[in-house]
Q: What sequence folds into this?
Protein backbone atom coordinates (compact mmCIF):
# COMPACT_ATOMS: atom_id res chain seq x y z
CA UNK A 1 0.00 0.00 0.00
CA UNK A 2 1.44 3.38 -1.12
CA UNK A 3 4.81 1.67 -1.57
CA UNK A 4 4.95 0.65 2.11
CA UNK A 5 6.10 -2.89 2.83
CA UNK A 6 3.73 -4.73 5.21
CA UNK A 7 1.53 -1.77 6.15
CA UNK A 8 -0.06 -3.70 9.02
CA UNK A 9 3.31 -4.33 10.66
CA UNK A 10 4.18 -0.66 10.21
CA UNK A 11 1.04 0.34 12.14
CA UNK A 12 1.71 -2.15 14.94
CA UNK A 13 5.32 -0.98 15.26
CA UNK A 14 4.26 2.67 15.54
CA UNK A 15 1.72 1.77 18.24
CA UNK A 16 4.37 -0.10 20.21
CA UNK A 17 6.70 2.89 20.04
CA UNK A 18 3.91 5.18 21.25
CA UNK A 19 3.46 2.99 24.34
CA UNK A 20 7.10 3.41 25.37
CA UNK A 21 7.24 6.01 28.21
CA UNK A 22 8.94 9.22 27.15
CA UNK A 23 8.79 13.03 27.44
CA UNK A 24 5.92 13.22 24.94
CA UNK A 25 3.74 10.90 27.00
CA UNK A 26 4.60 12.83 30.14
CA UNK A 27 3.71 16.13 28.44
CA UNK A 28 0.26 14.75 27.59
CA UNK A 29 -0.34 13.57 31.15
CA UNK A 30 0.89 16.67 32.98
CA UNK A 31 -0.84 19.07 30.57
CA UNK A 32 -4.16 17.28 31.03
CA UNK A 33 -3.73 17.14 34.81
CA UNK A 34 -3.04 20.88 34.98
CA UNK A 35 -5.20 22.22 32.17
CA UNK A 36 -7.97 19.68 31.76
CA UNK A 37 -9.26 18.68 28.33
CA UNK A 38 -8.15 21.97 26.73
CA UNK A 39 -4.62 21.61 28.08
CA UNK A 40 -4.53 18.01 26.93
CA UNK A 41 -5.59 18.90 23.40
CA UNK A 42 -2.99 21.66 23.32
CA UNK A 43 -0.37 19.06 24.22
CA UNK A 44 -1.67 16.61 21.60
CA UNK A 45 -1.31 19.15 18.82
CA UNK A 46 2.11 20.19 20.16
CA UNK A 47 3.44 16.62 20.10
CA UNK A 48 1.78 16.02 16.72
CA UNK A 49 3.38 19.12 15.17
CA UNK A 50 6.76 18.31 16.68
CA UNK A 51 6.67 14.74 15.38
CA UNK A 52 5.70 15.88 11.89
CA UNK A 53 8.58 18.38 11.82
CA UNK A 54 11.06 15.73 12.98
CA UNK A 55 9.82 13.15 10.50
CA UNK A 56 10.01 15.50 7.53
CA UNK A 57 13.40 16.75 8.71
CA UNK A 58 14.57 13.14 8.69
CA UNK A 59 13.15 12.66 5.22
CA UNK A 60 14.94 15.80 4.06
CA UNK A 61 18.23 14.36 5.23
CA UNK A 62 18.78 16.21 8.51
CA UNK A 63 20.27 13.06 10.00
CA UNK A 64 23.08 13.21 7.44
CA UNK A 65 23.70 16.87 8.27
CA UNK A 66 23.87 16.16 11.99
CA UNK A 67 26.20 13.24 11.37
CA UNK A 68 28.50 15.54 9.36
CA UNK A 69 28.33 18.26 12.01
CA UNK A 70 28.16 16.49 15.39
CA UNK A 71 28.44 19.82 17.17
CA UNK A 72 24.97 20.77 15.95
CA UNK A 73 23.57 17.48 17.20
CA UNK A 74 25.20 17.88 20.62
CA UNK A 75 23.97 21.46 20.93
CA UNK A 76 20.33 20.51 20.37
CA UNK A 77 20.74 17.43 22.55
CA UNK A 78 22.07 19.46 25.48
CA UNK A 79 19.40 22.11 25.01
CA UNK A 80 16.73 19.42 25.27
CA UNK A 81 18.36 17.91 28.37
CA UNK A 82 18.56 21.28 30.12
CA UNK A 83 14.96 22.15 29.24
CA UNK A 84 13.56 18.86 30.54
CA UNK A 85 15.68 19.10 33.69
CA UNK A 86 14.52 22.67 34.31
CA UNK A 87 10.85 21.65 34.07
CA UNK A 88 11.46 18.69 36.38
CA UNK A 89 13.21 20.80 39.02
CA UNK A 90 10.40 23.36 38.96
CA UNK A 91 7.92 20.58 39.62
CA UNK A 92 9.99 19.18 42.48
CA UNK A 93 10.48 22.61 44.06
CA UNK A 94 6.86 23.72 43.80
CA UNK A 95 4.93 24.22 47.03
CA UNK A 96 1.23 23.98 47.89
CA UNK A 97 -0.56 27.05 46.56
CA UNK A 98 1.99 27.78 43.84
CA UNK A 99 0.72 28.43 40.33
CA UNK A 100 0.89 25.59 37.80
CA UNK A 101 4.30 24.81 36.31
CA UNK A 102 2.68 24.63 32.89
CA UNK A 103 0.56 27.66 31.97
CA UNK A 104 -3.21 27.11 31.91
CA UNK A 105 -3.69 28.54 28.40
CA UNK A 106 -3.98 25.79 25.75
CA UNK A 107 -1.61 27.59 23.37
CA UNK A 108 1.07 27.46 26.04
CA UNK A 109 0.56 23.76 26.49
CA UNK A 110 0.98 23.48 22.73
CA UNK A 111 4.26 25.43 22.84
CA UNK A 112 5.50 23.43 25.83
CA UNK A 113 4.81 20.06 24.21
CA UNK A 114 6.18 21.21 20.86
CA UNK A 115 9.48 22.22 22.47
CA UNK A 116 9.72 18.98 24.45
CA UNK A 117 9.24 17.02 21.22
CA UNK A 118 11.59 19.07 19.05
CA UNK A 119 14.43 19.14 21.57
CA UNK A 120 15.12 15.47 21.02
CA UNK A 121 17.42 15.27 17.97
CA UNK A 122 17.77 11.51 18.28
CA UNK A 123 14.22 11.25 16.94
CA UNK A 124 15.45 12.49 13.56
CA UNK A 125 18.10 9.79 13.44
CA UNK A 126 15.52 7.22 14.54
CA UNK A 127 13.09 8.14 11.77
CA UNK A 128 15.91 8.19 9.23
CA UNK A 129 16.74 4.59 10.16
CA UNK A 130 13.14 3.46 10.70
CA UNK A 131 11.39 4.56 7.50
CA UNK A 132 13.61 2.61 5.06
CA UNK A 133 12.67 -0.63 6.84
CA UNK A 134 9.12 -0.30 5.47
CA UNK A 135 9.76 1.14 2.02
CA UNK A 136 9.39 -1.18 -0.97
CA UNK A 137 12.02 -0.03 -3.52
CA UNK A 138 10.07 -1.65 -6.37
CA UNK A 139 6.79 0.12 -5.53
CA UNK A 140 8.11 3.30 -3.95
CA UNK A 141 5.98 6.30 -5.00
CA UNK A 142 8.27 9.07 -3.85
CA UNK A 143 6.53 11.85 -1.91
CA UNK A 144 3.27 9.86 -1.81
CA UNK A 145 4.94 7.05 0.11
CA UNK A 146 6.53 9.42 2.64
CA UNK A 147 3.25 11.30 3.03
CA UNK A 148 1.39 8.06 3.72
CA UNK A 149 3.98 7.07 6.36
CA UNK A 150 3.97 10.41 8.16
CA UNK A 151 0.17 10.79 8.05
CA UNK A 152 -0.32 7.25 9.32
CA UNK A 153 2.09 7.88 12.17
CA UNK A 154 0.43 11.21 12.90
CA UNK A 155 -3.08 9.73 12.92
CA UNK A 156 -2.03 6.96 15.30
CA UNK A 157 -0.29 9.48 17.55
CA UNK A 158 -3.43 11.66 17.62
CA UNK A 159 -5.67 8.70 18.54
CA UNK A 160 -3.20 7.56 21.18
CA UNK A 161 -2.96 11.09 22.56
CA UNK A 162 -6.75 11.45 22.65
CA UNK A 163 -7.05 8.20 24.59
CA UNK A 164 -4.33 9.28 27.02
CA UNK A 165 -5.92 12.70 27.56
CA UNK A 166 -9.41 11.31 28.22
CA UNK A 167 -8.11 8.66 30.60
CA UNK A 168 -5.87 11.16 32.40
CA UNK A 169 -8.73 13.66 32.70
CA UNK A 170 -10.92 10.97 34.24
CA UNK A 171 -8.24 10.08 36.77
CA UNK A 172 -7.31 13.73 37.39
CA UNK A 173 -10.76 14.40 38.86
CA UNK A 174 -9.98 11.84 41.54
CA UNK A 175 -6.55 13.38 42.15
CA UNK A 176 -8.11 16.83 42.60
CA UNK A 177 -10.39 15.37 45.25
CA UNK A 178 -7.25 14.27 47.10
CA UNK A 179 -4.59 17.06 46.95
CA UNK A 180 -1.90 14.80 48.42
CA UNK A 181 -2.22 12.35 45.54
CA UNK A 182 -2.06 15.23 43.09
CA UNK A 183 1.20 16.48 44.60
CA UNK A 184 2.66 12.97 44.50
CA UNK A 185 1.82 12.84 40.79
CA UNK A 186 3.46 16.23 40.18
CA UNK A 187 6.63 15.25 42.06
CA UNK A 188 6.76 11.93 40.22
CA UNK A 189 6.43 13.75 36.90
CA UNK A 190 9.27 16.06 37.96
CA UNK A 191 11.55 13.11 38.73
CA UNK A 192 10.79 11.52 35.35
CA UNK A 193 11.46 14.76 33.50
CA UNK A 194 14.84 15.10 35.18
CA UNK A 195 15.59 11.45 34.39
CA UNK A 196 14.67 11.96 30.73
CA UNK A 197 16.91 15.04 30.64
CA UNK A 198 19.86 13.12 32.10
CA UNK A 199 19.29 10.23 29.70
CA UNK A 200 19.26 12.62 26.76
CA UNK A 201 22.45 14.34 27.96
CA UNK A 202 24.52 11.19 28.52
CA UNK A 203 23.24 9.08 25.62
CA UNK A 204 25.60 8.61 22.65
A:
Amino acid sequence: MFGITDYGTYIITILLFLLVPGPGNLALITSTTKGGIQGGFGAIFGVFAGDQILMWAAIAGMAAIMAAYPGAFSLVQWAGAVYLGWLGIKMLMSKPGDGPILDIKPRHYFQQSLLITLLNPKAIVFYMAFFPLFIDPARHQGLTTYLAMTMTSGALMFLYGLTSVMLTHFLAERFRANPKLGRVLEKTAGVFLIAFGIKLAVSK
User: Anything to note?
Assistant: The first helix runs from residue 7 to 19.
